[in-house]
Amino acid sequence: MSRCAALSAAVAAGVAALVAALLLLQPEDVGQGASLSMAETEALPKLREDFRMQNKSVFILGASGETGRVLLKEILEQGLFSKVTLIGRRKLTLDEEAYKNVNQEVVDFEKLDDYASAFQGHDVGFCCLGTTRKKAGAEGFVRVDRDYVLKSAELAKSGGCKHFNLLSSKGADKSSNFLYLQVKGEVEARVEELKFDRYSIFRPGVLLCDRQESRPGEWLVRKFFGSLPESWASGHSVPVITVVRAMLNNVVRPSDKKKELLDNKAIHDLGKADDSLKP
């Protein structure tokens, strides 16, 4: 690709990403996940210890992506699960000693029924699976973000998973005219139909991170939100580490709700709950 063509592609990606970001700057529905009270926050260390004692198993879909990668690291650092399994299309290179007991199941997402055993015996599942329209095309995006996610959720349910956690997006709406938000909304609704014992949906705004792969459009979006007042930016974006900590703080706290919807504000509150415990 010529330098001119590459520049044009980068500009187009940046414009598309900014349009997507502006679409996310809409008022969001208030999720069911409320911020923690001080008493609940102070109980988090005990809740984590109680959770560890249950020796639960967890699987992660999408551990090669930014959120999945940070999630895996945080899970291992907190030692919340007795067994950790990654389910993906390729085996990841995990050289550090901390990763030595991580199980990896390599599957063909086009033939997931042949790999049903990979989804069996897990108490908790985290789905961070996803791609972009730019990377996979519209058809490829739908196949990954809808078809692969839904089939994985079905197999997880059949395999005994009790608590399914879905990384979605702010503005997800199955009736949206924007393909990304439409697919995210459709997936949310169809996973709910599987009737997990507990189903947690996380709807973050723009994810702030330094990706290992180059995505000029997302770099432009991060710069855009970085130029906004902090109070405004935090309403529509969130660091990946905050999302991950919100996921884990949520998973250890008991709930009698079949479905939990955590919007961007709830993610910020729950993901930063531990900060208030620091002297």
From TrEMBL:
GO terms for cellular component: cytoplasm. Residues 1-33 form the signal peptide. GO terms for molecular function: catalytic activity. The keyword NADP applies. It comes from the Eukaryota. One of its GO terms (biological process) is import into nucleus. Keywords: Acetylation, Disulfide bond, NADP, Signal. Residues 62-210 form the NAD(P)-binding domain. It holds the Pfam family NAD_binding_10. PANTHER family: OXIDOREDUCTASE HTATIP2. Monomer. Forms homodimers during oxidative stress. Interacts (via N-terminus) with elongation factor EEF1A1 (via middle-region); the interaction is direct and competes with EEF1A1 binding to guanyl-nucleotide exchange factor EEF1B2, thereby inhibiting GDP for GTP exchange and reactivation of EEF1A1. Interacts with nuclear transport receptors XPO4, IPO5/RANBP5, IPO7, IPO9 and KPNB1 as well as GCN1L1/GCN1 and LRPPRC probably through their HEAT repeats. Binds NCOA5/CIA. This is Protein HTATIP2. It comes from Bos indicus x Bos taurus. The lineage of its organism: Eukaryota, Metazoa, Chordata, Craniata, Vertebrata.
